[in-house]
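User: Please fill in residues for this 391-position structure.
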């Protein structure tokens, strides 16, 4: 089946193919199947929020969030709707349910979201179990149990903040994002409105984090640090990347992306720049107006880096924005130079005009990750993952 392409002139400025996704994973949506419930299968996904490609030829793992499972492909998929080879989190490809309709274990999930490679291993943000699961080696089969858990004392627990009202260095509340870079592990501990950093990849269950951003200490968890928004505070951090050695965090609740100069080494260190807002104390969706522009954001949930570009999944505007590398950090509120998913910077409709999805349209895209010359986009509202070539 041919999926329509609506060539977007602005997408030519991004390093993405103007032809749209080379491969679409998930069911190809037509008008006839819109009303059919989404049943789990080796092909169907329900609101996938993250994906991780280990190399330019595979393997690929997808957090099939709504079905509470991971789907795995042994090699980089080469055709639309290619079925997954592996599943973790459910007894087979045709079942769903939080923790496989049982209690949490070392191979079950409740709303898995962020997912990343960590050395030779794999890390998954198991959001509603309030934990991070880590495999020391990337799974190469179905039903492989995780080796390590963070945020909980063991694999059987799943209370937010381990059942207390305060946060701690070894607890989590709705961790939605996870990222690994040069030995460090970063976790967007979203419900605690903070980012946790381990200076080395943890080796023990429940190991406490070494550093916190977004809060003055490890026990605080107030929105924006309990005060007005600042360069150090967070409201709903969701995803993490590193761009030109600078830490980047998507602070979706404040409708902005935060950029530090380098990697912070002190608790609650302020960022140097924000994108999506004109100042550190501004936090309105699309800068307070209905329609977006080239410098505004609405619930940006995903960030990634490809070909020296910073790519932002501007989720509620159903678009990708791109900023090019510069000799110095961008200024706060800098204008994006690239756009995909919409015809122009002032458009925000899902699949452009609320139509059927095309190869280059988006509907509440939650995640973007780049490996080699392949951008993997979790196009959550369309229940699919796009494999989009960089040029």
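Assistant: Residues filled in for all 391 positions:
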């Amino acid at each position: 089946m041919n999926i329509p392409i609506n060539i977007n002139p602005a997408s030519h400025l991004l390093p993405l193919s103007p032809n749209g996704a080379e491969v679409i994973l998930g069911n190809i949506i037509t008008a006839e199947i819109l009303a059919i419930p989404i049943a789990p299968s080796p092909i169907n996904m329900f609101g996938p929020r993250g994906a991780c490609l280990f190399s330019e030829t595979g393997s690929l793992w997808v957090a099939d969030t709504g079905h509470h499972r991971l789907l795995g492909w042994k090699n980089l998929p080469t055709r639309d709707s290619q079925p997954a080879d592996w599943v973790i989190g459910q007894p087979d490809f045709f079942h769903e349910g939080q923790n496989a309709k049982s209690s949490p274990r070392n191979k079950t999930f409740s709303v898995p979201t962020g997912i990343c490679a960590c050395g030779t291993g794999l890390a998954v943000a198991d959001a509603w179990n309030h934990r991070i699961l880590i495999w020391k080696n990337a799974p190469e089969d179905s039903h492989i149990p995780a080796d390590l858990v963070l945020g909980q004392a063991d694999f059987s627990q799943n209370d937010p903040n381990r059942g207390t009202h305060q946060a701690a260095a070894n607890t989590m509340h709705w961790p939605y994002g996870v990222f690994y870079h040069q030995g460090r592990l970063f976790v967007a501990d979203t419900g605690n409105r903070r980012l946790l950093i381990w200076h080395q990849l943890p080796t023990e269950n429940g190991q406490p984090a070494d550093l916190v951003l977004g809060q003055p200490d490890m026990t605080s968890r107030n929105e924006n640090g309990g005060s007005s928004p600042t360069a150090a505070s967070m409201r709903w951090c969701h995803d993490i990347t590193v761009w030109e050695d600078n830490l980047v965090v998507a602070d979706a609740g404040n409708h902005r992306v935060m950029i530090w100069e380098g990697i912070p080494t002190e608790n609650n260190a302020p960022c140097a720049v924000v994108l999506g807002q004109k100042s550190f104390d501004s936090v309105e969706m699309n800068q307070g107006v209905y329609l977006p522009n080239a410098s505004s954001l609405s619930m940006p949930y995903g960030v990634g880096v490809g070909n020296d570009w910073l790519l932002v999944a501007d989720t509620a505007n159903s678009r990708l924005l791109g900023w090019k590398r510069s000799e110095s950090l961008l200024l706060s509120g800098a204008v994006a130079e690239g756009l995909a998913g919409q015809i122009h910077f002032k458009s925000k409709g899902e699949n452009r005009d609320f139509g059927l999805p095309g190869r280059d349209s988006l509907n509440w895209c939650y995640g973007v990750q780049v490996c080699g010359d392949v951008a993997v986009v979790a196009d959550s509202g369309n229940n699919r993952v796009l494999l989009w070539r960089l040029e």
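For context: The longest helix spans residues 351-354.
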